[in-house]
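Collaborator request, handled under Task 6.
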Amino acid sequence: MALSLRTLAGEIKTSLYGRRLGIDNNECLVGLRGVRTEITSATSATTGTPISNNGLTTIEKATSAAKTYTLALPYAGARKEIVSVSSSTKIASISLSGASLSCTSGSSNTLMEFTGRGQRVSLVGLSSAAWLATHMSGVSST
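Structure tokens returned to the collaborator:
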């Protein structure tokens, strides 16, 4: 069944911006076409700068040596996706800087390693000191 923006707008119970944006009976935000997110790139020029704790970050290899980046500490509910777009091997390591990474295997790690194009990880912040990996494709963690 299709739901148009007009139909959703008719279900608004608490208005935030007229019939264009509001909250429905399910406490869901309705009326938006979509949500935009920050997109950043981790390159050899940004090695000293922490990777942000939300949005999408692409890892691009610009030098022959592998780089280590630091992921900013999470906050509860933060969503972060990291994708390797480089065709090189031994591209980058990402340190979690005082936070831990919980994986479906039950392990708790502090480092992620990307070694090829298309590898990705999706993270959700559980607290200010813990990430949960909801999806890992080709990424190893220790």
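The cover message to the collaborator said: "Residues 5-10 form the longest helix (6 residues). The chain has two domains: 1-35, 39-141. Please let us know whether this matches your experimental observations."
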